[in-house]
Amino acid sequence: EKANIGVVGMAVMGSNLARNLAHHGYAVAIYNRTFAKTQAVMDEHGSEGTFIPGATVEEFVASIAHPRSIILMVKAGAATDATIEELLPYLEPGDIIVDAGNSFFRDTIRREKEISEKGFHFVGTGVSGGEYGALTGPSIMPGGTPESYTVLGPMLEAISAHVGDEPCCTWIGPNGAGHFVKMIHNGIEYSDMQVIGEAYELLKAAGIGTDEAAAIFKTWNQGELSSYLIEITADLLQQADPQTGAPLVDVIKDRAGMKGTGTWTVTTALELGVPVNGIAESVFARAESSHDDLRRVAQTSLQGPDRTLQVPDKDAFVEDVRRALWASKVVAYSQGFDEIRTGGQEFGWNINVADCAKIWRDGCIIRAKLLENIRQEYSASPDLVSLMCAPSIAPQLADYQDAWRRVVAAAAQAGVPAPVFSSSLAYYDMARAPRNNAAVTQGLRDYFGSHTYERVDAAGHYHLEWSGDRSEIKTSDN
Ligand code: NBP
């Protein structure tokens, strides 16, 4: 019997994905550079379904039915290129290499071009849900050709998470589109975690203990904030340190790591000219948290309030923080979805934004009740200029803004950093202002660099003779 599909990379993600496929009745060929890991999967899980272990790449490829679908779950970067190089000599035209690692979408564009020229398909696909999701049903974001999706799609949809009978997997668009969308998923994940952290810090500053904060997050998870990350925050805050018995969160060093997808989301947004303030602030917050020298020096040299908040009405304050969290989260999502749309246009992918929200409703790390709402908004108006302005979102932001402003002001007053809460509010205010401070910037640009300006009352571009007689010259008609 030949395998229906192959998986390369038997570390945590690949082995779980292979088991998920086997649990769904597919015969799965498995391969790992170091055979011991393949053997370990056979020993521990071989009885869960049909696995065909390959000791060599040649044996592995030969064991898969043609046209072959081969999923790579190896370390992103050089390991992915090395694995592809090893596979290529054994493939036949029409075979599909699927890169399910967290590859940068520009690498995926390059690889797709090189590999399709050789007569094979290359599908860069995002997979989210961590190791548990890979095993039980992740959210899957495949790119590549539509032809490859006809072979691969049914298998990926079968193993993905489902909302009712809708799979959390759909074809996103050509070449790098899947990895691009996964990148932004991760960027949004950064901002989701950051706003949770900011909310927790504010609750703490108001004298709320860790247990009580855990209970608050639990309650929030019952309402419109209901999401996987809010749910596990409640769990994290409840956890006692096995060594000391203190809340574990107080023992964990306040230094957040990162592997790159958040940074890629921000650098790509900068290249595309899309403001993703919330995601950028989240990436910068992690960077600042890890900047040991800065923090050591600043803790003794920089003065400010002592991070305590006097709140006369605790319940009202907690509700304010909840509203600020919701509003900031929605603004960060709005920015992330803007990047998906702009990137989709820029790279010629024609990405269906509503579909992204649809396949993120379950399986992935940012799964949340809000995503159904977002899906409905983008389905109803595919050309929605900004999620912030959607019919169900704008009135709620209007309703929540007083609380949001109180929280940002209180945080600033008390010296509690809330970079995403405050930058999201600034973005909201910047967008809605009939006039903003850019006129000063543009005037200065014309002053020192003759970059010209436009006028509010006439078409064309103008330059003022700043160092001459200060007369105005029209430099172009449009
Ligand atoms: P790792 O990212 O730790 O990669 C380990 C795998 O890569 C092993 O199978 C290893 O083989 C293989 N490998 C390496 Br390293 N260098 C290789 C090379 N030069 N040639 C061939 N194979 C090589 O595993 P992971 O945490 O399971 O993640 C796999 C992918 O999934 C990554 O791209 C990751 O970013 C992505 N991802 C992870 C998560 C998550 O929650 N962890 C979620 C979503 C996506 P060896 O055994 O011989 O060393």
Structural class: alpha/beta
Give the termini separation.
68 Å
Shape: globular
C-alpha Rg, in Å?
A: 25 Å
Strand order of the largest sheet: 3-2-1-4-5-6-7
* Main pleated sheet: 7 strands, mixed
CATH class of the largest domain: Mainly Alpha
Integer count of domains: 3
Overall strand count: 11
Describe the structure concisely.
Pathway: Carbohydrate degradation; pentose phosphate pathway; D-ribulose 5-phosphate from D-glucose 6-phosphate (oxidative stage): step 3/3. Residues 178-467 form the 6-phosphogluconate dehydrogenase C-terminal domain. The chain has 478 residues and is α/β, with parallel strands linked by helices.
Topology:
Elements: E1 5-8, H1 12-23, E2 28-31, H2 35-45, E3 51-53, H3 57-62, E4 69-72, H4 78-87, E5 96-99, H5 105-117, E6 121-128, H6 130-136, E7 139-142, H7 146-159, E8 162-163, E9 166-167, H8 177-205, H9 210-220, H10 228-238, H11 248-251, H12 261-272, H13 277-289, H14 292-301, H15 314-346, H16 353-359, H17 370-380, H18 394-414, H19 419-432, H20 438-449, E10 461-464, E11 472-476
Parallel strand pairs: 1-2, 1-4, 2-3, 4-5, 5-6
Antiparallel strand pairs: 6-7, 8-9, 10-11
Helix pairs in contact: 1-6, 8-12, 8-13, 8-15, 9-10, 12-13, 13-19, 15-18, 15-19, 16-17
Bound molecules: nicotinamide 8-bromo-adenine dinucleotide phosphate.
The site of nicotinamide 8-bromo-adenine dinucleotide phosphate (NBP) has 23 residues, from helix 1, helix 4, strand 6 and helix 6.
